[in-house]
Amino acid sequence: MKHIVVEITAALEALSDAEKKAVFPKFFRAGKGEYGEGDRFLGVVVPQVRAVAKQHRNLTLDELHELLQSEWHEVRLCALTILKEQFKKADDMLRKQVFDFYLAHTQRINNWDLVDCSCYAVVGEYLLDKPRDILYRLAESPLLWDNRIAIVSTFAFIRKNQLDDVYALSDQLMHHPHDLIHKAVGWMLREAGKRNPQRLYNYVMSRRVEMPRTMLRYAIEKFSREERAILMAVTERNLHFME
């Protein structure tokens, strides 16, 4: 199975762009002490990764496991792209296998783009008609990427107008220490607000003081200028009073 890693890595290396290879480690925070510390990049953009994935769409889960062990970010992205496409076309039995495989490899789904491009299409879609306790366990995990998977997977629910889990998980992650989760929660709240603006407005109003600033700004981005001004003014006034 190692040959498939060599083959796909070589295909991606052939598409490498020197400028992007230099920029990506900074963009994805791969420096010492940063959330992507140690990640390595070939400098290949997403459409090119997708093209390589399309040529290897029938890989086995064992082969995808080997790809996910790669030190190269784009090789792992390629594996997740293949996995996502396989899930779309799978029967119920294979979908369960892909879902279990995905959750068994979250330590290798270890940057925000890897999470965001795949979790809603695998974890979220699988759970559409099932109990969702696993998301709340992921939200409690010590692994940052599990936490992000938990909230971003709700994007699949939002598309079906199923909003309860978005708000429940937002409450659970409200005081998370990392800005990456604040952004993800704010993003999902914003998407939920597109489906039901009043519910989002009421939610933000009731939590505006405790909500991290980044989360709040992401969540209210689609409100009118007047609504944003009211929420931010109320928030800033309350924070000043508490100091």
Automatic annotation (TrEMBL):
InterPro entries: ARM-type_fold (IPR016024), DNA_alkylation (IPR014825)
Protein name from the UniProt record: DNA alkylation repair enzyme
Residue ranges of coiled coil: none
